[in-house]
Specification:
Layout lengths: L8 E3 L2 E13 L8 E6 L5 E7 L4 E7 L27 E4 L33 H12 L7 E6 L6 E7 L5 H6 L3 E7 L27 E6 L5 H6 L2 H25 L6 E6 L16
Parallel strand pairs: 2-5, 4-9, 10-11
Antiparallel strand pairs: 1-2, 2-3, 5-7, 6-8, 8-9
Bound molecules: copper (II) ion.
The site of copper (II) ion has 3 residues, from strand 6.
Length: about 280
């Protein structure tokens, strides 16, 4: 269960989050060794951001990724040509209503802070400086090198959103590497009325064994490399599909068949290919 993002404090009277992007190891299945990922705050998926309609906050997205990518970069893709740095990062909240400086434009990427970046490398994308200035003019915030501070006003309907890596030419690779997470916007007239969902949704610091009534579930397929080297690619895909089926089956067994607790399952799908279909069992209340 991904943790819920916790505000680091208040800044200009608004909650303020700090979320670093950094490498991590995470287990995707009990019977598999830990897998290398790039993560938000060490968690894959990233920590769930819980927002409430009408309540603004800001997030400082910090690029702490290493110098080299651990996945192969395709230099034929626009924006990822030879000579462009590999660890560009910028974060976009998919579907969020924000002003341009906080939208995570694909060209507004920035490198991590490092002394040994070749002088021929750009350290930021072509839109970074403009948005950095706009953020300062609008909100009085300073983006330090290797960071961007985005403002989320949350003046929109309750809905399920997600945040993800958004660099020109690298988006798919960085999401594949692990850089995505839920952004759940709750409250207001578009949300279910109080009491319809019995709660709780997952919270950071929940004691082990907490019985949940809402589970955020991201479905993404992954081909795991050692398997690829030893066997045929198709087996890796089959395994990924089996893991997904296993997770869905376990959830169904624990919650639906027992007719007990699961009332809402929030599903985001980030597939490698677009062919997959997803059918959910209808749940009994
Ligand atoms: Cu998106």
């Amino acid at each position: 269960m991904p943790p819920v993002a916790q505000a680091a404090g208040l800044r200009k009277k608004l909650p303020f989050y700090r979320i670093p992007m950094r490498p991590t190891l995470a287990k995707v299945h009990r019977d598999l060794p830990a897998t290398r990922f790039w993560s938000y705050g060490g968690s894959v998926p990233g920590p769930t951001i819980e927002a409430r309609t009408g309540q603004a906050f800001s997030v400082k997205w910090i690029n702490e990724l290493p110098k080299k990518h651990f996945l192969p970069i395709d230099p034929t893709i626009h924006g990822a040509e030879e000579g462009v740095p590999e660890v560009r990062a910028v974060v976009h909240v998919h579907g969020a209503k924000v002003l341009p400086e906080s939208d995570g434009y694909p060209e507004a990427w920035y490198l991590p802070v490092a002394r040994d970046i070749p002088s021929s490398f750009a350290r930021v994308g072509s839109f970074y400086d403009q948005f950095r200035q706009e953020a300062y003019n609008r909100f009085g915030v300073n983006w330090n090198p290797g960071t961007a501070i985005f403002q989320y006003r949350n003046d929109q309907r309750a809905t399920t959103l997600w945040f993800h890596s958004h660099e020109l030419g690298l988006t798919r690779l960085n999401i594949y590497a692990g850089l995505s997470g839920f952004y759940l916007l709750r409250g207001g007239s578009a949300d279910v009325p109080p009491g319809v969902l019995p709660g709780p949704a997952p919270r950071a610091g929940d004691p082990p064994g907490t019985r949940y009534y809402e589970i955020p579930l991201i479905v993404q397929d992954r081909a795991l490399r050692p398997l690829l080297e030893e066997t045929h690619k198709i087996i890796a895909y089959l395994l990924a599909a089996l893991v997904a089926v296993h997770v869905m089956g376990a959830l169904r067994h624990h919650f639906v068949k027992r007719n007990t607790v699961l009332r809402r399952m929030t599903v985001g799908i980030g597939p490698l290919a677009r062919e997959e279909g997803l059918r959910t069992p209808s749940t009994t209340p």
